[in-house]
Specification:
417 residues, 12 helices, alpha/beta, Purple Acid Phosphatase, chain A, domain 2, 6-stranded mixed sheet
Length: 417
């Protein structure tokens, strides 16, 4: 028996797949139905454009993955954290296929106008590389020497310099002095997004390695959750359990996704002695001296007024101030010069870019003015945007690896005012 050419049945199959998927997710929220409808519609159009150039074996392989993607969306109707086998054989392959399909869009358009090319395979190879970057991280150390000089409008500082040997390197305008004051050692964790690419066990590994580096502070800048980790306080608590060994040195703020299930976040952190700062200050005695840690709430509106209120009546007595602010785009709402260092996440480092080949460029940097990764300066403010412990949204990281860093921060010539 000869199987039919898959390119001949693709249009009808994709139409049926689209309709059946929407019917199966109909009992979910209106937002989810719309999200799945729009995304599946885009994916089906790209697959249709690629179908004509697929050989029979490749065509049937595509159909198998298309079913896998649809099943993935249907399973999210009852979203929950899944085991290793489920993630390895369903969730991650489905997300790889979705992300790679989006990357294959130019080839689909080209084929649709009569110029098919086997080059679309490159998109799926790049996607496979993205899976590796989405699941692994290389520990690194970043040295920051922070002055209080006015550096003008918001702009990035090259991260290449920050990762060179410490001697004779410019950091935000200051030359590093190896025998200077003891740096404040900070491990930042941000955007772990417990779910398909970050299990509680993996995040516990990140946390244990943080403990092993014996930092002065561990600072968590939000977005602990995905749809799958709602109502999973036990999993959140297990993921952060190694940090209990550093009780009194670990602080956190909310990210936007934490507002989807604030109680799960609160309970998971509280069980491990992690202090959640919601528009609050904490004065901390560290081995590098006294530091003020400030946790800004994720405000959806009136940001200028609410962030300004965070500093009202706070006299500057010369103590270094570190602000936890999830979204770096909210820096523009901050009164200038109130902090020494602002730690952010949210962008996942830009998530798709060219960092892996030595460039600082990402899609976020290329098409927006939002700080995407690394050190940025604005007047007297210094902003460090972590690339993220995990990711969410676009299914993969591509060219922007996870970050597992230690910041060694020196506050140069810190004076009151």
């Amino acid at each position: 028996m000869t199987l039919p050419d898959p390119s001949m049945i693709q249009p009808w199959f994709l139409l049926a797949l689209f309709v059946v998927t929407l019917a199966l997710v109909w009992k979910r929220s209106v937002f989810y139905r719309r999200f799945v409808g729009v995304l599946m519609g885009i994916l089906c159009l790209i697959w249709w454009g690629l179908a004509a150039q697929l050989q029979p074996i490749g065509g049937w392989l595509f159909i198998a993955f298309e079913i896998l993607v649809a099943f993935h969306f249907v399973q999210l109707v009852h979203a929950r954290l899944r085991g290793v086998a489920y993630r390895a054989f369903l969730t991650i392959p489905a997300q790889w296929f979705m992300a790679s399909t989006v990357l294959a869009l130019p080839f689909s358009v080209s084929a649709a106008v009569g110029h098919p090319s086997d080059g679309f395979i490159i998109a799926y190879v790049v996607g496979a590389f993205g899976v590796v970057q989405s699941l692994t991280a290389i520990p690194e150390t970043v040295d920051l020497v922070l002055d209080r000089l006015d550096r003008g409008p918001l702009k990035p500082v090259s991260m290449k310099a920050l990762r060179k040997p410490r001697r004779d390197v410019e950091h935000a305008g200051r030359s590093v002095v190896p025998d200077g004051p003891r740096p404040l050692r900070i491990v930042q964790l941000t955007d772990p997004h417990l779910g398909p690419f970050m299990s509680p066990e993996q995040l516990a590994g990140f946390c244990q390695r943080a403990v092993d580096r014996d930092p002065d502070l561990v600072l968590i800048t939000g977005d602990l959750l995905t749809m799958e980790s709602h109502d999973a306080a036990d999993a959140v608590a297990a993921a952060f359990s190694p940090l209990k060994a550093l009780e009194g040195r670990v602080f956190a703020c909310h990210g936007n996704h934490d507002h989807e299930d604030r109680e799960t976040v609160r309970e998971g952190l509280e069980r491990n002695g992690i202090r959640l700062l919601v528009d609050e200050w904490a004065r901390v005695e560290t081995r590098a001296g006294t530091v003020d840690v400030i946790g800004a709430e994720y405000h959806w509106k009136d940001r200028d007024e609410r962030l300004a209120a965070l500093f009202e009546g706070r006299e500057d007595d010369g103590t270094p101030r570190i602000l936890l602010l999830h979204n770096p785009n909210h820096v523009k709402h901050l009164p200038e010069g109130e902090t020494d260092l602002i730690l952010c996440g949210h962008t996942h480092g830009g998530q798709v870019g060219l960092l892996s080949i030595g460039s600082d460029w990402t899609f976020v940097r290329g098409f927006t003015s939002i700080p995407d990764h690394g050190l940025w300066v604005r007047g007297r403010d210094r902003v460090y945007v972590h690339r993220g412990t995990g990711h969410y949204g676009f299914p993969l990281r591509v060219g922007v690896p996870r970050e597992e860093s230690m910041l060694r921060v020196t506050f140069a010539d810190r004076q009151p005012g």
